[in-house]
TrEMBL record:
The lineage of its organism: Bacteria, Pseudomonadati, Bacteroidota, Cytophagia, Cytophagales. This is Dihydrolipoyl dehydrogenase. Keywords: Disulfide bond, FAD, Flavoprotein, NAD, Nucleotide-binding, Oxidoreductase, Redox-active center. The active site is a redox-active disulfide bond. Its EC number is 1.8.1.4. Signal peptide: none annotated. It comes from the Bacteria. One of its GO terms (biological process) is 2-oxoglutarate metabolic process. GO terms for cellular component: cytoplasm. It comes from Hymenobacter nivis. Residues 4-329 form the FAD/NAD(P)-binding domain. NAD(+) binds at G182, G183, G184, V185, I186, G187, L188, E189, E205, G273.
Length: 468
């Protein structure tokens, strides 16, 4: 029986990063994965393929809407869905092949099959294609099995016309009417993809705001901007059903006034969140305790009630984000090694990869009001940015929330061009507990989108913004 210091179950961003860090720290490490490729949901049917399609469709959208103004003339512009999907597949393959290379480089044993506990120190791996299971012995286990799309019990998803985000990434035609249930990150990214290439898109959201977990100003601005590319929004609507008859999907919902809304389309994406995936782990055999919503219960060190068994990523509390799982993977590996790592969960940014992009970190304005914290606000619109004007990306703003007394930055919320990258400046500043004036006094290259961060901090510092 093979013996390991650490065995990681699940090869998504949390799992493979945990395995690599364990190997770097000198542990004999195994990584168990039931699917034929490594990388989990993120690399195979989530983060990476969605960004590939978002990028492709944004190129088409710009060619269709703004190239003429740039002085670029095109004839016979068309969408080739097969090529678009094939390119996406190539991007995915390059990434998952890269993970396989990293496993070999770090001398990590990759064990193919479904891992389940025999007891706290023994794991059975059953090949997904059938055959005899093998068993390994391990001192420590890191559970990193991720999540799956949440289903609505009153909707039967056939994964052909009533679909999850996985199937939404494989449609090889331009939908006539793409209906999205859910106005969160996944729903809006998928809505953007198909709206850009000419599909009619409707988004039905239960709450009265898009991306409701983020600062409300972001959702309001995003609704305005996405409305300009034709997406229709039905906020405050409670979905009551979705049925299919041939190629027609009918979605019904109750409006805020109690009336019935009926939408007919050819595809319906159910994007109401994700749920922890722990099926088949046989956690009972190891004595691992669960908590609400199907999550695994862990302590401050991400250790379960069973010493030596840890859990990270989507199966534990907190935001379901790939980079959050990565940080936790490193955290657990270093904890096992006896180090004292730290994660500040408040400073893990959230990003929406629509265009313009959306991101936030730290406290929202609503949270500060709820907690009764005295704060001040500085905001700067991209319409006042020279770089944004040059690229015709003038929608959106940067909003900085700072402590009214100390000027420490408490939260930063952005919507605009290249925000997914720009949010890192805010995270860096907040990790070092910078004040708004600290950032305002730092030199930012001109012309750049990042100047909007400096200007917002100037605005928060005695309303000193220069360019507005």
């Amino acid at each position: 029986m093979n013996q390991y210091d650490v065995t990681v179950i699940g090869s998504g961003p949390g799992g493979y990063v945990a395995a690599i860090r364990c190997a770097q720290l000198g542990f004999k490490t195994a990584l168990i994965e039931k699917y034929p490729t490594l990388g989990g949901t993120c690399l195979n049917v989530g983060c990476i393929p969605s960004k590939a399609l978002l990028d492709s469709t944004e190129h088409y959208h710009n060619a269709h809407t703004t190239f003429k103004e740039h002085g670029i003339e095109l004839k016979d512009l068309a969408v080739n869905m097969n090529q678009m999907m094939d390119r996406k597949g190539g991007v995915v393959k390059a990434n998952v092949d890269g993970i396989a290379y990293l496993m070999k480089k770090n001398k990590i044993d990759v064990l193919a099959g479904v891992g389940s506990f025999v007891d706290k120190n023994h794991i059975s791996i059953a090949p997904t294609g059938g055959g005899a299971a093998q068993q390994i012995e391990t001192k420590n286990v890191i559970i990193a099995t991720g999540s799956k799309p949440t289903v609505l019990p009153f909707i039967q998803q056939d994964k052909q016309r009533i679909i999850t985000s996985t199937e939404a990434l494989t449609i090889r035609e331009v939908p006539k009417h793409f209906i999205v249930i859910g106005g969160g990150v996944i729903g809006l990214e998928m809505a953007s993809i198909y709206a850009r290439i000419g599909a009619k898109v409707s988004v039905v959201e239960y709450t009265d705001s898009l991306i409701p977990t983020m600062d409300l100003a972001l959702g309001k601005e995003l609704k305005r901007i996405l409305g300009k590319i034709g997406i229709q929004f039905y906020l405050g609507h409670k979905v009551t059903g979705a049925t299919r008859a041939g190629d027609v999907v009918t979605v019904t919902a109750t409006t805020p006034k109690g009336e019935e809304l009926k939408l007919e389309g050819d595809y319906c994406l159910v994007a109401v969140g994700r749920s922890p995936y722990t099926a088949g782990l046989n956690l009972e055999a190891a004595g691992v305790q669960m908590e609400e919503r199907g999550r695994i219960k862990v302590d401050a060190h991400l250790q379960t009630n069973v010493p030596g068994i840890y859990a990270i990523g989507d199966v534990v509390r907190g935001a379901m984000l790939a980079h959050k799982a990565e940080e936790e993977g490193t955290f657990v590996a270093e904890t096992i090694a006896g180090q004292k790592p730290h994660i500040n969960y408040l400073l893990i940014p959230g990003v929406v990869y629509t265009w313009p992009e959306v991101a936030g970190v730290g406290y929202t304005e609503e949270q500060l009001k709820q907690e009764g914290k005295a704060y001040k606000v500085g905001s700067f619109p991209f319409k006042a940015s020279g770089r944004a004007r040059a690229s015709m990306d003038t929608d959106g703003f940067v909003k900085v929330l700072a402590d009214k007394t100390t000027d420490e930055i408490l939260g930063v919320h952005m919507i605009g061009p290249r925000i997914a990258d720009l949010i890192a400046e805010a995270v860096t500043a907040m990790e070092f507990r910078a004040s708004a004036e600290d950032v305002a006094r730092m030199s930012h290259a001109h012309p750049t989108y990042a100047e909007a961060m400096k200007e917002a901090c100037l605005a928060a510092t005695d309303n000193r913004a220069i360019h507005m």
